Amino acid sequence: MYRYRAVLLRARFDENKDVKDMRVAQQLLDEGEKELFSLIHYQPRQFAYSPGGVAHGREVVPPDWVLDYWHPMEKAAYPEYFARREQRKKEYIEWWEKTYGKPAEPAH
């Protein structure tokens, strides 16, 4: 039922997409928002990993620079990955210097 009503509401928005008068357009938008609010469930479902869910943001994704501090023996377990990673780091540095120039040397 929700999807059906959403499609109908979207169709109404599409019918009025070429309205030039801003007062009429604002009135149509307000009516659409009122209708949408009146149709939402009183206790909307929130999926666990979606924003607002109980597990949102729990999984910490380590930043890429952490891999630079791996011990060489750890890197030896994934030689192809780290070879490709070093190549891509060089390509990124070349792109950065080409786009923005070399960073200025700090004065000592």
Automatic annotation (TrEMBL):
Pfam families per the UniProt record, alphabetical: Complex1_LYR (PF05347)
Subcellular location: Mitochondrion inner membrane
CC annotations in GO: mitochondrial inner membrane
Keyword check for Cell inner membrane: no
Gene Ontology annotations of biological process type: mitochondrial electron transport, NADH to ubiquinone
Database matches in InterPro entries: Complex1_LYR_dom, Complex1_LYR_NDUFB9_LYRM3, NDUFB9
Domain of life (superkingdom): Eukaryota
UniProt entry keywords in alphabetical sequence: Acetylation, Electron transport, Membrane, Mitochondrion, Mitochondrion inner membrane, Phosphoprotein, Respiratory chain, Transport
Complex 1 LYR protein domain boundaries: 7-36
Membrane topology note: Peripheral membrane protein
Purpose: Accessory subunit of the mitochondrial membrane respiratory chain NADH dehydrogenase (Complex I), that is believed to be not involved in catalysis. Complex I functions in the transfer of electrons from NADH to the respiratory chain. The immediate electron acceptor for the enzyme is believed to be ubiquinone.
Similarity comment text for this entry: Belongs to the complex I LYR family.
Quaternary structure annotation from Swiss-Prot or TrEMBL: Mammalian complex I is composed of 45 different subunits.
Name of the protein in question: NADH dehydrogenase [ubiquinone] 1 beta subcomplex subunit 9
